[in-house]
Request: fold
Amino acid sequence: MAEPLLEVENLRTHFDTEDGRVQAVDGISFSVEHGEIFGVVGESGSGKSVTARSIMQLIESPPGVINADAIRFKGEDLLEKSPPEIREIRGGEISMIFQDPMTSLNPVMTVGEQIAEVARHHLDTSESSGFWSEMKRKYVTGASHESESWRRAIELMDMVGLPDPEQRAHEYPHQLSGGMRQRVMIAQALAGDPSLIVADEPTTALDVSVEAQILHELLELRDEFDVSVVLITHDLGVIHETCDRLAVMYAGELMEKGKTGDVFEDPKHPYTQALMKSIPQITDDREWLDVIPGSVPDLVDKPAGCPFRERCEYAFEGCTEPLVEYDVGEKHTAACHLHSDEVNKELTDRPAAPESHEGPSEQV
Ligand SMILES: Nc1ncnc2c1ncn2[C@@H]1O[C@H](COP(=O)(O)OP(=O)(O)O)[C@@H](O)[C@H]1O
Ligand code: SF4
Ligand SMILES: [Mg+2]
Reply:
């Protein structure tokens, strides 16, 4: 079997703060296959963004420290790359899309130019890049809008579903709607011809119908560009619609991993089950994650054992032991002691490993 595109092994990222050590990501491992959309879902504060930023080495240090056994991309450990090598990979082989495009787009540059800039830098064009080269093209040689990179920008804007790309390319970010800006971000991410896009809540700020269109676009682009996507979201509905496999994250740890169909049909971890029960039937309620009683544990000086135990209806004494991932199906794991053979044997007078409930109804 071909090696995975991305392999994250035992990633741990902490921040040393005045209050103590915040263990934001606490020993997670997962892999992403070629052409796959891999979802990471969890409540706010569970460590999703820190995971994304750790892969891209975008954690400010100090206070942040990234540790991992390996973060392999195409078989090579990104942690062993030099800062210039990592910069080259970022925005090229691996690109990132954030929740709020306004924070990553340049407000005083046309969107076409911002996409062209990435194309120019990462593709093998003979055009020089950078501000002064651009100014020269614009005002001295006048070649800016006939350049190969500009044509590529228009083409990409068209591909991600921006209407009138020729005209829109001359506009500035503030002239576009939120959905259009996010499409610009996607076009910009594609301009470096990436193999992997890490998308951190890319549709969270958008209304439901625009969100659905953009997710649909992402699925089409995956087929067209053969790109893999790590899709980070707090919304299980988004995962259900889009992802091939998923990981459920809680308090910096992965609770359950598996194929989307398997996890939705038969969630094996009490946390995943609680999340699924809390999905509202009326799909316009976006606050569904708040329905689980209790709150995420404090990540400062985090205690050992299962981080969900304060909220778990199945918790027992053994839950203070460090978590282990148990195989619960084909390529399906759950980090919950109820799935250990030993515990199951002993628990004759307790509920056995939790039964799944019926899958959710239609999601957004
Ligand atoms: N620069 C930082 N300094 C201290 N703590 C941080 C920093 N960045 C993130 N954290 C903490 O890491 C935890 C995970 O955050 P984050 O990855 O943003 O969560 P999510 O994206 O799942 O909502 C949170 O408790 C957050 O407060
Ligand atoms: S390990 Fe214990 S507390 Fe954690 S999910 Fe399983 S039963 Fe619940
Ligand atoms: Mg986040």
Notes: The radius of gyration is 22 Å. Residues 282-286, 358-364 have pLDDT under 50 and may be disordered.
